[in-house]
């Protein structure tokens, strides 16, 4: 959303979700939202039904230039050379 929308907090500390936000995020009655507070800002995030599916492929661009097999081999090699306590 590029435009801010004002909502009023009720006596029961409830707010109504603006239609534009519901439409853009496909939020329906009964859906759950995650509430996150960061540096004095409230962030509402639709709670995914499946966290694995929701994060699938996240930051895939970090691995585009890396050979996964070589990376794993290097990591395993580092385990062998760990200092003994």
Q: If you had to describe this structure to a student in words, what would you say it looks like?
A:
- With 85 residues, this protein is of the alpha+beta class.
- 29% of the residues lie in helices and 14% in strands.
- The chain has helices at 19-25, 51-55, 68-80, and strands spanning 33-38, 41-46.
- Strands 1-2 form a two-stranded antiparallel sheet.
DSSP strand count: 2
Q: Tell me the β content.
A: 5-15%
Q: Determine the fraction of residues in helical runs and give it as a percent range.
A: 25-40%
Q: Main β-sheet: number of strands, strand sense, barrel status?
A: 2 strands, antiparallel
List keywords for this structure.
about 80 residues; alpha+beta; two-stranded antiparallel sheet; 3 helices
Write the layout of secondary structure elements.
Elements: H1 19-25, E1 33-38, E2 41-46, H2 51-55, H3 68-80
Antiparallel strand pairs: 1-2
Question: In short, what is this structure?
Answer:
The chain is α+β, with helices and mostly antiparallel strands and 85 residues long. It is built from 3 helices and 2 strands; from the N terminus they run H-E-E-H-H. A two-stranded antiparallel sheet has the order 1-2.
